[in-house]
Amino acid sequence: MIEKIMASLESLPTEDLLEIRKNLDELIRSKYDDDLGKRKGKRAKVKIAGNVEIEREKEFFFNLHKIVLLEMSVNGLVFSIKATVIDGDILHVSFRVPSTGEKKIIDCQAVRVQETKPGTIPEYEVAAIAVSKEAVKDYKDMLRKRGQ
Questions:
Q1: CATH number among 3.40.50.150, 2.40.10.220, 3.40.50.720, 3.10.450.70, domain 44-145
Q2: How far is CA 61 from CA 54, 64, 143, in A?
Q3: How far is CA 10 from the centre of its chain?
Q4: To which H or E segment does residue 43 belong?
């Protein structure tokens, strides 16, 4: 069946193929969300400055990268960063709550990384989900034991 569909698509112009791809992406996203019971609503839109520490970089150097939080939910967040983040990285995100000034530190894991501005210093949009201290400990152990 897939072979028949692909054969019929080969004769279409590029504009039509791009439109089909966009529609397929939306269909896949909606089916994926339905199948996994994902939330239909959007995350809260915010614009909060903060810092992130990438666990993978800690063994070589201590760096805090500046970020801008774009969206937040109970168990995850989306932010933009001008540093390389890899899917699965453990991140320590810190920011101050605008209303109270209280400092929050969240341990999270990158689940989706998209390059938004390519160039010599690319900018990435990262979606991360909150993880427990146990997951952070397991990740540190994995980093320590790799290559052995």
A1: 2.40.10.220
A2: 10, 10, 15
A3: 33
A4: none
CB contact at 8 A, 133 and 107: yes
Residue 38: pLDDT band with limits 50, 70, 90: low
What integer is the mean pLDDT of 64-71? 91
Distance CA 49, CA 69 (A): 6
Residue for token pair 């039509």: 16
Distance set, CA 63 to CA 5, 33, 71, 98, 130 (Å): 49, 35, 23, 24, 21
Cβ neighbours around 88 below 10 Å, total:
12
| DSSP per residue, 60-71 | T----EEEEEEE
pLDDT in tens, 1-16: 788 888 888 888 888 8
Q: Tell me which residue has tokens 């997951």.
A: 135
The pLDDT value given to residue 36: 52
Q: Quickly count: other Cβ atoms within 10 Å of residue 128's Cβ.
A: 24
Amino acid at site 129: I
d(CA 30, CA 24): 10
More confident residue, 97 or 36: 97
